[in-house]
Structure formats: C-alpha cells, structure tokens
Specification:
This protein is of the alpha+beta class and 213 residues long. It has one domain. It is elongated, with a radius of gyration of 19 Å.
Length: 213
C-alpha cells in the first residue's frame, strides 16, 4: 500500500473496507500480512523495463526469419484501425484475467470485479477469493500468453507484420503483470503456510503467512 494513497472510487472503497475486515480476521487466526503490491505509478514506471527485453527478443526472432518492410501498415486507415484493435484487446486482456481467476476461485465468477482507475486510465480486474501461488501466476500471465506470446510466435512463423505489431503492443500491455509475477515468484517464505489474495485497489497482491511449527 502506498504511503500517499490516491482517491478511491466507491467500488474500491467498498473493497478496501472488506479487505481490512479480512486482514483483521486473518490476524486473529495467527496470520501476518506481507504486501506484495505496487502503486499504479510504480507499475507504469517500472514494468516497461521488464517488457522491453521480451519485445526485443521477439523482434530479433522476427528479423531473423522474415523481411520487415512495414508495407502492410502504410495504409491511411492503419493507425486508427490499430488503435481500435488495441482498445478492444485491452478489454479482452482484463476479461481473460477474470475468466482464469474465476475458474480457480472457490466462489467462481462471483469473486471477479472489473473497473478503471481513471486517474491513470488503467483498466483492471480483481479477484476477492484466496488463490494459491500457481493459480495467481496463471491468472496474471494468461492474457499476455494468449494475446501476446502466441500471436507473436504465429507472426514470426507466418511473417504477418500486422499480427506481429499487435502482439508486441499486447506484450507491452502486460508489462505490469510481468512485474507482479516477478514479485510473486521471488516471495519464498520458509516454514510458513501462505494464502495469496489479490489487492483490492492497488496493482498486485498480498500474502498472509502463518508459521508452521
């Protein structure tokens, strides 16, 4: 949780109150909380450093097997078309988060909420049910796998430039997820029972830990 919190929406405030109740309950059960989340500003500033090396790897692979002429994106309507496709895929990106986490969550789709952080023009999906590390991992990365990695590989094989451009934009769109997953994977507590919970209004998650005797 950031030191200086942004103004929360009504939905975020409601989730925050439920989250504080959950924290209190977990504390009485012997758990302690570790915050693994990022602020929206941190995500926007740091995540690109994780995504760009992935983009460069895909670009190198594309150049290795294909000519790169940009002929297919010189059409007058191409910039507007790419923008519309990108905005649509951002919605699909968040929907994939929700579908994947909803599949794993004990309460199913009832645990999933969508919204937009308007101050940062950042859409989001959040899950209110506890998840295992593996479940959170797949829910966080699945949109970039489906919309970024797989189309990128197909574009390299086929030499289809428009698909390649879209795939690279979607990898950039998933940069924040890379950062969150990196923090999740680096969280390796010893001799502790761990429950992971998506943060209700920041980017990322929290971990509740209980020592195992």
């Amino acid at each position: 949780m950031s030191k200086k919190e942004r103004k929360l929406s009504a939905a975020e405030q409601r989730r925050k109150e439920k989250f504080l109740e959950k924290c209190s309950t977990m504390e009485t059960e012997g758990y302690r909380m570790e915050n693994l989340s990022f602020s929206v500003l941190q995500i926007n500033l740091l995540s690109v450093f994780i995504a760009l090396p992935v983009n460069f790897l895909f670009m190198f692979s594309y150049f290795l097997f294909n000519d790169f002429s940009l002929r297919s994106v010189y059409l007058p309507y191409a910039p507007l078309l790419f923008l519309l496709i990108f905005l649509l895929l951002i919605v699909v990106h968040e929907a994939i988060h929700g579908i994947t986490w909803g599949y794993f969550a004990p309460d199913g789709r009832k645990s999933i909420e969508y919204g937009v952080i308007w101050q940062a023009l950042t859409p989001y999906c959040t899950c209110s049910s506890p998840l295992t590390k593996k479940q959170y991992f797949w829910g966080a990365l699945m949109p970039t796998i489906i919309l970024g990695f797989l189309p990128g590989i197909i574009a390299i094989i086929t030499g289809w430039e428009p698909l390649f451009f879209v795939s690279q934009f979607m990898i950039l769109a998933g940069a924040g997820d890379f950062l969150i997953v990196a923090r999740l994977l680096l969280h390796r507590p010893k001799n502790a029972q761990v429950i992971y919970l998506d943060h209700p209004y920041e980017c990322g998650l929290v971990a509740f830990l209980k020592n195992i005797d």
